[in-house]
Amino acid sequence: MIVHDFSNENSVLNQFISELRDVEIQKDAMRFRKNIERVGEILSYELSKVLTYTNKVVQTPFGSKAIQNLSDEMVLCSVLRAGLPLHTGLLNYFDAAENAFISAYRYHEGDSDDFQVIVKYLAAPSIQDKTLVLTDPMLATGKTLENVFMALKEHGQPKQIHIVSVIGSRQGVDYVKAIFPRDTHLWIATIDDELTSRGYIIPGLGDAGDLSFGVKL
Predict the structure, then answer these.
(1) Distance CA 98, CA 132 (A)
(2) How many domains are there within the chain?
(3) CATH number of the domain bearing residue 98
(4) Could you tell me where the DSSP H helices lie in the chain?
(5) Mean pLDDT for back-to-back runs of 10 residues, the chain (217 residues)
(6) What residue numbers bound the domain in which 50 lies?
(7) Alpha-carbon span 124 to 122, nearest angstrom
């Protein structure tokens, strides 16, 4: 896997990550969602640099100009519900992409630390020979992305896979490296070193779904 970790680069991306982590700023759910969306936009721009382009002649009021246009057929797939703001950020840039959504959640039997990821809903177009972009804001253990990847296999074989995340754990990144094809790209704003026994990133930012949309029952 090719990992693109932007945490050590000086850019406004780090400002947005700082605000996402801040417990006071997190109280503003609209701002939290917007910052996730902004991170998605920045990572989309970086991702766009490795995609495929063809020249297209564009007619202007005063002449014509050959300009490179994106030629990849793309499918953006996000994990509900936490992935929605990140998905919006990507869709702002890849507006011609097809879209897929999957419901995946952790189930801790008997409130134990161990858990399994349950997939209950999937709506997706064919991904055969397309560029698949999987979005999940928190790459904690990597098991959610593994289950999403397995669920999508019945929809075809993509020509290229990209993963877009906001914050990951070192353990989660290593896990998906072992699961996904070697030429998969991971685009991630920052990686934290610790993971709790229940699979939560430390220091992380908390539950991205709850912070975006309210506490679930």
Answers:
(1) 10
(2) 1
(3) 3.40.50.2020
(4) 13-21, 29-48, 84-93, 143-152, 170-179, 208-213
(5) 94 96 96 98 98 96 96 95 94 97 70 64 94 95 90 94 97 95 97 88 93 86
(6) 2-213
(7) 6
